[in-house]
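Tokens in:
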């Protein structure tokens, strides 16, 4: 509540929908370095208040913006650290050079647990796997969310060098375009460095009919208690209906970029 103006004001979780509306309006490349607020847990890699670089490029896809994101990291490292082989206080070296590897989420999860997991894997089996491994999950979690929980438990810690994890479940990615070849997944990547998610990129969904259906489903999940589900945004849908060009979009955590460069966690330099 703002006492000076006697009004309630709101903290945003992301500028995403507003920047996309700017692209609809004709600004084909937009970015913002912004403060975001998430009413979620706090630990060594999560802060309820953080800084993000978010950008969108018309007529690009998730592979295009993956390349751009790698170049942003590499140029930032050269400007700030003077090298792409960053030496951390413990003596370890983070190598940011070259082209970074890409791994498929479902393929790497299947390899890690020793059985095939796919978007068609029944929810009941994913629940059983989570319970077997002591992984906590929300009772209403959709199959894709369970697959992601298993992935984070079994695979993420192996990503010490920069790695793009590709092709996420469609039911956890309501704003992302469906994969052009693979059913059940979308064209989305997450960037992991030293086992920490440091950014995410999409081929953006631009069909307003599909987008409305997905947001309606998200609103239903929110009504059933899913705190991370999105709500229906009529202003955004109206903008899409005017004609949204194909685009790629990215969010990069500036705080996590600094963690990667310095090799420090939050509790180590508070």
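Residues out:
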């Amino acid at each position: 509540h703002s006492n000076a103006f006697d009004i309630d004001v709101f903290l945003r979780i992301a500028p995403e929908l507003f920047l996309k509306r700017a692209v609809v309006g004709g600004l084909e490349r937009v970015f913002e370095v912004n403060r975001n607020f998430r009413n979620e847990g706090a630990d060594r890699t999560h802060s309820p208040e953080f800084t993000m670089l978010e950008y969108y490029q018309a007529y690009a896809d998730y592979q295009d913006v993956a390349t751009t994101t790698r170049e942003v990291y590499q140029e930032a490292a050269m400007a700030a650290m003077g090298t792409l082989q960053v030496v951390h206080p413990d003596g370890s070296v983070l190598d940011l050079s070259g082209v970074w590897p890409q791994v498929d989420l479902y393929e790497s999860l299947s390899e890690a647990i020793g059985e095939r997991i796919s978007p068609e894997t029944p929810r009941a089996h994913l629940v059983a796997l989570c319970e077997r491994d002591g992984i906590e999950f929300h009772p209403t979690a959709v199959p894709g969310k369970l697959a992601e929980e298993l992935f984070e438990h079994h695979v993420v810690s192996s990503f010490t060098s920069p790695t793009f994890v590709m092709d996420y479940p469609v039911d956890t990615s309501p704003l992302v375009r469906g994969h052009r070849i693979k059913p059940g997944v979308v064209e989305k990547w997450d960037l992991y460095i030293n086992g920490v998610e440091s950014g995410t990129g999409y081929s953006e969904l631009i069909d307003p009919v599909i987008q409305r259906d997905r947001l309606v489903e998200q609103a239903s999940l929110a009504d059933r208690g899913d705190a991370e589900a999105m709500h229906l945004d009529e202003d955004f849908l109206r903008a899409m209906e005017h004609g949204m060009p194909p685009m790629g979009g990215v969010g990069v955590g500036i705080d996590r970029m600094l963690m990667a460069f310095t090799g420090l966690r939050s509790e180590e330099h508070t």
